[in-house]
Specification:
Elements: H1 2-5, E1 12-15, H2 18-24, H3 32-41, E2 47-50, H4 58-63, E3 69-72, H5 86-90, E4 94-97, H6 105-114, H7 124-128, H8 137-154, E5 166-171, H9 174-178, E6 187-192, E7 202-208, H10 215-234, H11 240-250, E8 257-263, H12 266-273, H13 282-290, E9 297-300, H14 308-311, E10 321-324, H15 338-342, E11 346-348, H16 359-368, H17 370-379, H18 386-409
Helix pairs in contact: 3-10, 6-17, 8-13
């Protein structure tokens, strides 16, 4: 979507129905509503178009004022084996971009079914520096450079061409990262320059694992933005005189809040959730958060517990608000938000339609439809999980559930 947006000034994204995907490709992991939510949240998307036909026709794209259709460099066929884009290709209105390297739905399903942990990243900064990872020193160096470039690409603005979100990494002790046993400020290092907070914007902090960046995460972030917009309305942010003054003084208008998202390390999430969570590593999860239009800055390797020392030493100063969602995916033994509550800046987002959609829910969807997903893996040439691997996954999930109950009993 980033590459497509860079080819024009607007990007309309067609989204197929669940039924069309099932008929032509296989079962969906996300429902149509959930997928629309994801497209709407992408900062490079101008408009989502649900129920787009699986085979793209010229009248369809012309109806929406689109001249070109953009797709990845893989071949996409319908249920009859014919090219889904044959009509727009024949008309010379088809453009090809490279597929996103290293990650796909097939890869993620494989991690879930095979219960692997080889995707974990021990230290993102060391990996980007070429000091960790697989391969020779030269291969690690090139991989690190590619990763850093992708972070910068994903941190661009709505055009995909100019700097947008700021990117930081936090470093501290292992105990400070994993739990509440260490009260330390740590240190933040800027990874990518972008647009910082504008005058009079409220600084808002959120954090999480954001694994499989689902509609549950997206709706939570949207609700945070909505809550801050409501606060802005009460304080006169949107009055015409205030808007004119911002445009006159700064050359553009901007919203009332600057939202910063802390993303936890792989080992931190696995410490609390077990099995082979997170399904996506910190690099992949961070990119998902970066592309979200409801976020203005990302802090990689953020501590699990936002202590007073951490919050008061953030790059933008102590936040005006720290938000948390209505549910927690992590089986906790303590309240990690004690400091924000003591500081009087803690706020909660209420219940919403996608609040139960998290990594665990998505894994369960895959497990329930395992036969269909394994067939999709087979068609794609991927190794099937097999009964033994699935049994192991189920046992690990049960063990994680028992651990959650034990921790809950000690709270």
């Amino acid at each position: 979507m980033l590459q497509a947006r860079r080819l024009g000034k607007e990007l309309l994204v067609g989204i197929h129905s669940d039924e069309a995907i099932l008929e032509n490709k296989g079962p969906t992991v996300m429902t149509l509503k959930e997928r629309v939510s994801a497209v709407d949240a992408c900062r490079w998307s101008t408009l989502s178009v649900p129920y787009a036909p699986y085979v793209t026709s010229l009248p369809w794209i012309s109806h929406y004022g689109c001249y070109y259709v953009v797709h990845g460099d893989d071949i996409t066929s319908d249920s009859t084996g014919e090219d889904c884009y044959r009509y727009v290709k024949a008309a010379g209105r088809f453009l090809v971009v490279k597929r996103t390297p290293g990650i796909s739905t097939t890869d993620l399903v494989g991690r879930m079914l095979l219960c692997t942990r080889t995707h974990f990243i021990k230290s993102l900064t060391r990996t980007i520096a070429g000091e960790e990872g697989v391969g020779s020193a030269e291969e690690r160096r090139r991989m690190g450079e590619d990763m850093m470039q992708r972070i910068k690409d994903y941190a661009t603005d709505e055009s995909g061409l100019q700097p947008g979100s700021e990117v930081w990494s936090w470093s501290g002790s292992k105990s400070a990262m994993e739990d509440d046993t260490a009260e330390e400020a740590g240190s933040c290092t800027k990874m990518a320059a972008g647009k910082g907070p504008r005058p009079h914007q409220r600084i808002v902090y959120v954090d999480g694992g954001f694994d499989l960046f689902s509609s549950g995460h997206i709706e939570f972030l949207r609700q945070v933005m909505k809550a801050e917009e409501t606060t802005g309305q009460r304080t006169g942010w949107y009055e015409s005189s205030a808007t004119k003054e911002r445009v006159s003084t700064y050359g553009e208008d901007f919203g009332p809040a600057y939202i910063v998202a802390g993303v936890h390390d792989d080992e931190v999430i696995n410490h609390w959730k077990g099995v082979n969570y997170p399904i996506m590593n910190i690099f992949e999860r961070g990119l998902c958060v970066l592309q979200c239009r409801y976020i203005h800055s990302v802090i990689f390797s953020a501590p699990f517990t936002p202590t007073k020392a951490y919050l008061t030493n953030l790059p933008y100063g102590t936040p005006n608000a720290v938000y948390h969602g209505p549910t927690s995916f992590m089986p906790l033994t303590y309240d990690p938000y004690t400091a924000p509550k003591d500081l009087g800046i803690y706020q909660e987002v209420g219940n919403h339609a996608f609040q139960n959609v998290n990594a665990g829910e998505i894994v369960q969807r895959i497990m329930k439809s395992r036969a269909m997903y394994e067939e999709r893996q087979r068609v794609k040439g991927e190794k099937a999980a097999g009964e033994e691997a699935v049994r192991r996954r189920e046992e690990l999930e049960k063990a994680a559930l028992e651990l959650e109950k034990q921790r809950a009993g000690h709270r």
